[in-house]
Design goal:
By secondary structure, this protein is an alpha/beta fold. The protein has helices at 10-22, 33-42, 59-68, 84-93, 105-119, 152-163, 171-178, 189-201, and strands at residues 2-6, 26-30, 47-51, 75-79, 97-100, 126-129, 132-135, 140-143, 146-148, 210-213, 217-220. It has eight helices and eleven strands. It is elongated.
């Protein structure tokens, strides 16, 4: 899914971005609250990881501003400010979680997964569609008990379709969620990856789960 990271400490920003990307997420990173605000207004993110003390809009001001504008992207604050008052203020302003620096990346990733489940109304890490099973926590996919090996982008595409089961997703919406602003590939990238997925998910099975809705996009059902 697509994540925004706003952290002004550049080395930490690079590490967080690299680690989230290695976990298969599409990541946009910025170094100040002003750019974060612009990104959040222009892009539908599944979660945002925001530093509290950063140039431009600080994290608290940024969350207060986007919530007032109806932007409900789940937010995780990263900060060295560990007082109870700071945490209460951040949560009261509209943040969803709070992680104190220094932190273990495994905990950050787990908390991001929780935020993404919250954003899609899934209370568990297991998604089942017919005989297809997707375990978000372990990133394992199987169909009819047979494990299916997917690339990082294939997995993210399948997970996005599964989280929106029964909903037709346009090519533009899929591309905006799965690929970040740095992507420089072809314009038919979504069609290409849908073909990859169909070969692995549907070709060996009588019941097809990935469907094309002509002129509208793709749906998993």
């Amino acid at each position: 899914m697509r994540i925004l990271v706003a952290e002004d400490e550049r080395s930490l920003n690079r590490i967080i971005t690299k680690q989230l990307a290695s976990a298969g997420l599409s990541v946009d990173s910025v170094f100040n609250g002003t750019d974060a605000y612009d990104n959040l207004r222009m892009t539908e993110y599944d979660a945002a990881v925001l530093d509290v003390m950063m140039p431009g809009y600080d994290g608290f001001t940024l969350v207060k501003k986007i919530r007032a504008e109806g932007i409900n992207t789940p937010v995780l604050f990263l900060t060295a400010r560990d007082s109870i008052d700071d945490r209460v203020e951040g949560l009261d302003l509209g943040a969803d979680d709070y992680l104190i620096k220094p932190f273990a990346f495994e905990e950050l990733l787990a908390r991001v997964r929780v935020l993404m489940r919250k954003n899609t109304n899934h209370s568990t890490s297991i998604i089942t569609i017919d005989d297809l099973t997707i375990d978000i926590a372990s990133r394992k996919v199987s169909r009819a008990g047979r494990e299916i090996n997917l690339s990082a982008k294939e997995y993210e595409l399948l997970r996005y379709l599964a989280l929106n089961k029964g909903i037709v997703l346009s090519r533009e919406k899929i591309e905006n969620h799965i690929w970040n602003y740095d992507y420089e590939g072809g314009t038919n990238v979504v069609d290409v990856y849908i073909r990859y997925l169909r070969k692995k998910i549907d070709d060996d099975f009588e019941t097809k789960l990935i469907h094309t809705v002509r002129g509208a996009g793709y749906v998993l059902r």
